[in-house]
Amino acid sequence: MSRLPADSVGLVTPQRHTFTEPLSLACGKQLPRYELVYETYGELNASASNAVLICHALSGHHHAAGYHSIDERKPGWWDNCIGPGKAIDTNRFFVVSLNNLGGCHGSTGPSSIDPATGKSYGASFPVLTVEDWVHSQARLADVLGVQQWAAVVGGSLGGMQALQWAISYPERIRHCVAIATAPKLSAQNIAFNEVARQAIITDPDFHNGDYAAFGVIPKRGLMLARMVGHITYLSDDSMGAKFGRDLRSDQLNYDLTSVEFEVESYLRYQGQEFSGRFDANTYLLMTKALDYFDPAGAHGGDLARTLAGIKARCLVMSFTTDWRFSPERSRELVDGLLAARKDVSYLEIEAAQGHDAFLLPIPRYIEALSGYMNRIEVSQ
């Protein structure tokens, strides 16, 4: 790419911070030392009132907008929403995006070196929860001089983090934007995650999570896990429109193992590509964090009681063909917020793209998100 788009945040350089204060985790363990990798876009104003935190989903990372080099083919994963004049306008906001603790894109995770052993953590890396992530993000906010976020924004697993921020740190967040998410996973969702985990765990190269010591990765298991996951991110309509029953050749091969349909080829490509850039232990960790998320569990399942302490205004958005995080689950969250007498706006967007819709530049979605973000007041 010889020239960057005018509405891009431009070239960005990831930053890294090392935390030496131990982090106590929900599982009962501690991380004595850890690193978080993050990117920032825009400028923090004098009152530090214009900071927005972007929380990523299962396979996301810190590179949400802009480009790492002039030759990078694709921008960050949410570039269509973050930048000058975009929904999350970097002319107004100081935007922070990080790779969550336990990730595999620079933050301390299972593939990182354990200073106590000099080897990668592997299976010994502790299990994390959404609440753990939020506590580590709060420490990053302290480092950046942000005492209160103008907004915490996220889709899917990122939306769960935004909600947990509003619950755990009510004084430190003014707006919670939760997109295509749920107050807890359904049994069906947990089942899909378990199938994906079993694909990885039963791969002969998994070696109980310590595959790095053997110089291998459970590539086939991770590939299958991604294929299963990817099916759930798309709607039947979107898959039909994109692939239908199109064949790769003019006729059937009558071969039980060959790739004959275009949708088969697509899924295999997605699995192959993902298995080369994502860590299997991180995938297990992230899906477990999804499964464990249930803040109302601490209050006997009473969601309204769980949300009673929230002070942030909330925006909840869902998509009609999203069956992984259906509109019904978003309405459940909205009902809980209303029962707790909280300020909440809700929009259900007509979209054919399924769960992946939250990542795409769908006009009504972008217009609604822009309208909400533009109404967030920031002092100078």
Automatic annotation (TrEMBL):
Belongs to the AB hydrolase superfamily. MetX family. HAMAP family: MetX_acyltransf. Gene3D superfamilies: 1.10.1740.110, alpha/beta hydrolase. This is Homoserine O-succinyltransferase. Pathway: Amino-acid biosynthesis; L-methionine biosynthesis via de novo pathway; O-succinyl-L-homoserine from L-homoserine: step 1/1. The lineage of its organism: Bacteria, Pseudomonadati, Pseudomonadota, Gammaproteobacteria, Pseudomonadales. Substrate binds at residues 226, 356. It comes from Pseudomonas abyssi. GO terms for cellular component: cytoplasm. GO terms for molecular function: homoserine O-acetyltransferase activity; homoserine O-succinyltransferase activity. The keyword Transferase applies. SUPFAM superfamilies: alpha/beta-Hydrolases. Keywords: Acyltransferase, Amino-acid biosynthesis, Cytoplasm, Methionine biosynthesis, Transferase.
